[in-house]
Design the sequence.
């Protein structure tokens, strides 16, 4: 910083001597001056150092010039002023050393605080990573539960569809059973009408048989045969109706059993779906807690990181100023 301000090499060496001695309390030497400046030959810093000590001794020498004051008194007063100046300089140097020790202690304490803050930041990063991993795990479990719930919903919809199909089959069976009953009733009515007609014809035949015995025998035989055929047809119709009725009853029992099983499966699916909803809600709450913890950890880490520039600025503002210059 001094080189652009003092292009002359000898003047630059003199300023460096004053800076080392008065600001930093370092006794300047020729080798040290050349190590800092690195300009000119080795004789230049030696000449600048000799001139600096001459100027310093000249400034430290106090001469009192007063008309009529005896020489011994002037010399004694000058020595007293020089001693006072030396004591004041020594006190300033001691105070500067104390301030330096205090600044070093504060710097060491600040470094310790910085190291502690870095350790706390590392711990917070570790906790944040653990919270993020826990959040990812909770998110994965929630997704798995959602997929399982979706599968259960699909199975539930399939069970509802099967139940609806079974209900339609039962309704169709009821319709077929009602049709069979109506058909049997119609056949039975037809058989009864046929028997009644046969009986009427038999009576008419008997009346005719009274008039004609020969024709009566023939007509009776024919009527008996027709009556037997009608009875046989009626018996076959009753047997077919009973068989069909038995088959319809068996089919209805099977459909009822299937409907009961479908109802049980539907109840189980609804119970499993309720359990999955509860698990999904617990997983969502856990994920929300992990997200809140992660946000708090991020805020604390940002606060710790924001406190570091403030500490550096505070250390710069607290750096002590060293006394410069000498008595004029």
Sequence:
């Amino acid at each position: 910083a001094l080189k652009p301000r003092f292009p002359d090499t000898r003047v630059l060496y003199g300023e460096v001597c004053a800076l080392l001695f008065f600001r930093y309390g370092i006794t300047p030497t020729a080798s040290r001056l050349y190590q800092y400046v690195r300009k000119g030959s080795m004789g230049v810093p030696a000449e600048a150092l000799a001139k600096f000590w001459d100027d310093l001794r000249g400034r430290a020498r106090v001469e009192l010039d007063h008309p009529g004051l005896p020489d011994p008194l002037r010399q004694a007063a000058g020595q007293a002023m020089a001693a006072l100046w030396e004591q004041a300089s020594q006190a300033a140097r001691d105070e500067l050393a104390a301030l330096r020790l205090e600044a070093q202690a504060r710097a060491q304490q600040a470094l310790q605080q910085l190291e502690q803050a870095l350790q706390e930041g590392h711990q917070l990063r570790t906790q944040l990573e653990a919270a993020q991993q826990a959040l990812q795990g909770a998110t994965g479990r929630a997704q798995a539960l959602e997929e399982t719930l979706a599968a259960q919903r699909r199975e539930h919809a399939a069970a509802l569809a099967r139940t609806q199909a079974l209900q339609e089959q039962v309704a169709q069976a009821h319709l077929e059973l009602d049709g069979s009953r109506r058909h049997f009733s119609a056949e039975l009515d037809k058989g009864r009408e046929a028997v009644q007609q046969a009986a009427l014809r038999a009576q008419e035949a008997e009346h005719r048989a009274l008039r004609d015995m020969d024709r009566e025998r023939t007509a009776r035989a024919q009527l008996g045969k027709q009556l037997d055929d009608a009875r046989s047809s009626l018996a076959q119709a009753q047997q077919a109706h009973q068989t069909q009725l038995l088959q319809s009853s068996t089919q209805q029992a099977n459909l009822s059993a299937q409907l009961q099983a479908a109802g049980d499966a539907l109840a189980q699916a609804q119970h499993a779906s309720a359990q999955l909803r509860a698990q999904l809600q617990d997983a969502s709450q856990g994920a929300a807690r992990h997200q809140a913890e992660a946000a708090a950890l991020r805020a604390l880490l940002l606060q710790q990181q924001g406190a570091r520039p403030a500490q550096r600025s505070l250390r710069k503002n607290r750096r002590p100023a060293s006394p410069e210059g000498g008595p004029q």
User: Anything to note?
Assistant: The CA atoms of residues 104 and 293 lie 39 Å apart.
